[in-house]
Every structure is written in structure tokens, then in C-alpha cells.
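Format notes (please read before filing issues)

Several people have asked whether sequences and C-alpha cells are stored in separate files. They are not. Every record keeps both together, in the order shown below: the sequence lines, then the C-alpha cell lines. Line labels are part of the format and must not be stripped during preprocessing.
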Amino acid sequence: MTSRTVEHSRRTATRGRTEERAHRGVEEGTLTSTVTTARTRIVGTRTGVTADALVAAVRIARALGAGLDRVRRAASAVVTPVGWTLAAIAPLALLAGYLWGWRELVVIGVAAAALALVALLYLIGRTPLVVELVTPPSRIAVGDAALARLAVTNSSRRRAFGVSLDVPVGQGIVPVALPGLAHGARLDRDIPVPTTRRGRLVLGPVRTVRADPIGLVRREVTFTEPVEIIVHPRTIDIPSTSSGLVRDLEGQPTRDLTPSDLAFHALREYTPGDDRRHIHWKSTAKTGTFMVRQFEETRRSHLVVALSIASIDFASDAEFELAVSVAGSLGARAIRDAREVSVVVSELTPEFAKRTVVATRDLSTIAPHRLLDDLALVDLSPAALGVVDVSRLAGGSARGVSVAFLVIGSSVRPARLRTAAAAFPPSVEVVAIQCDPEHVPGRRRLSGLSVVTIGSLADLRRAMRGAEQW
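Then the structure lines:
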């Protein structure tokens, strides 16, 4: 037997004896636990009254620390930086004045202490008001009149003093001054909601601020929860996508041949695998050979609306807002017609990114209001891809697309338009809708590309009705 075998046998025997002793210790209750708890860390090897006293002292210290921390947080929420400065100056000035005999410092200390006591008086009491904020609909369009109503009721048994309520509306705060209210009295105030620009607005929370004139203390009391309102872009009801311009574009057959469709192309000899339902029996009888029908593939009802959000494609914010409204009108109409539609915009490149983000983002087309929700948050950006790159990305994934709308501004030149249109397959009809309020609306052909210039949403309705409207 080798030395390695002897060593292995010895280790195995030692491990077996160790496990046997441990098992015997568990059965006899003599095995010592190695689990470390907070108590064992505190008392160590101490036992009896000394250990219990240490544990009780630690518990009391932790409770005091938690209480002091709550007091600190509550005081920090009420006392302003100026108040903390004055609270530090008062005792230091009094101590230094009495020790050094400087009356000026004593006067400063007494004055600071008096100001602090007066400021604390403004925190006494509570505001016995019940405040309700009645908001307008959660979705409104740009330019629509919208009002939020503030209903205030005095719920106390005594007369309430006049207060001032702060109502946050978007990025601003609307102050509402309330007079004194008798017991059970109610007061309603209307607050206008700005709808001049699309986006997301947050109303509330309504709060009142109690503060001293110097600004040493400030306590806010919140009455309501914040409510979100989305301001949609202005849209217009355009003709159904089953008629007018879209129908004219989709009604033309393509050059792609298919064994089954609507547009008949020609007859050819039967080959194994052809559908027997398309056998032309009269021609078969004349030629003595099975003949089947061949069809031309017609265009599918899939629309793509590519909205450019690049600053280089628009000359002004007015053009971009009109473009967003156009994209919303086209997409919402297609969704209501139960057609397959895709609305895409460029992904934005982060400010400190090393490389440009070359991608597009699909907006929600589940329902018209979901699409308008996404369009309400779209902004013009210099970090977005231009119409040429967006068209390349959309054209590369365009399967079964019949018509592609490129919604752009007046800064896009004809050469860039032709390049953008060339990114789509030849079977896709590309229409560029150029938003330019400064030019006369019209439509023209540009190297196989349809260019529609509009100055307002009314021009879009005329354009979508068909060629006879121009």
C-alpha cells in the first residue's frame, strides 16, 4: 500500500469520527451554536443581569436616536436655512456677550431669540379647510378652453381666517387668495389651464404655505394629489383612407406576379403545386394542356407615416407643430378605418453619447388617443435623424407597405426628398407632405414622388380628397 493511499484512509477515518461526535453532541444537547446575533455581539460572554442591562441600554439608545432623527427631519421640513442660521447665532451671541461683557452681542442674541419665538407663533394651529380640485378632462386638444375648479369648504366650528393657496399648473404656480370663511361656508374659484402648447401638464397638489414675514419658518400643508393632463396636438377629420388620395394610390396593381389575387395578368401552363381552383378549363379544352391563371399582386392596406423631428428639416416651430398635427390626423384616420398603420419618429441620441443612435421609434397605434398621447410628447431636436435616415430605416422594414407619407418642413430640398423616397421599395407609393405656411398649397410630381405642400390642416383635407380638389 502506497503512502498516498494510507493518507487518504487516515483522512476518511478522521472525518467519520468528527461527524460521529457532532451527531452525538446534537443528540445530547451539548453542541454549541455558532450563529451570531445582535445580542451576542453586544454582551459577548457576559450573562445574567449585566447582559440584560447592556441589551436594555442599547435598545433605549436606539429608540432615542430614532426619535431624534424624526424630530430632525420634521424640523428640517419647517425651518429654513435663514432660520437655522438665526438659531445658531442667538445662543452664541448671548454666550459671547455675557462672557466678554459686550452688550452689543447680548442685544443681538436677545433680538435673534425674540425673532425665533415670534416665527414659531406662525406655526401654531391648523388650517380647517377641505379643498377639492375638479380638473378638466385628462385629454384635451391644443387651443381648447380648459378650466379647473377649486372648491374650498370650512369644516371647523369657527370662522376660518383668510389664507392663500398655491396651485401648481405645469411649470408655474397660480396663487389663489381666499377670504375668511364662516362655519360650513363654501367658495369656488376657476383656474384657467393653459393649452397653447401640446404636452403633459400636472395640476396640483394644492397646498397652503404658512410662513413668518422674515422667512425663518415655512410649513406646507397639502390638500390634494397631483393630476396629469395631456394636451393633444390639433387634428382634423380627413376623408376615409378607403377613398380619395389613398385609394387612388393603392388601386394600381404592382408588377409582382402571384398565383392568387384580384388583378388577372395572363395564362400559363400548369406546374406541380399550383392550386387547381385557378385552372382555366376553356383554355385547357382548346390546348389539351392544363392552363392556370396568373395574377398581378395588388397593393396592401398598410400605411407608414414617417414624421421627421430633426431641426434641420423645419424652418420654424410653427412648421413642426403643423407636421405633428398632420401625422396625428393621418394616423388617427387610418386607425379608425381599421387599417394597418405605422407611425415612426427618430430615436434621440443622448447628449454625451459616443455614437449617434441610428434607430426609429414606433408610436402607439392601438387607438387614436394613444397615438395622440405619444405625439403630445414629441419635440423638435437637433439630435434626431433627418428624413433621409428615417426613410431608410422605415423602408428597410417595410413589408407589405402600400403608401408611405413623409411629413417634413420647408427646409427639405428636392434632392433630399428624392433620396428619401428611393429608400422605399419600388412598389411603395411615397407621398411627401411638406408643411410650409408661407407658400401656396399645391401638389406636384418630383421624379415619381408626389409632393403635397400645405399651409394649414384645411389644406390637408383638400389634398386627401383626391386630385380633383387641387
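For reference, the curators noted about this record: The CA atoms of residues 280 and 286 lie 10 Å apart. Confidence is low (pLDDT under 50) at residues 25-34.
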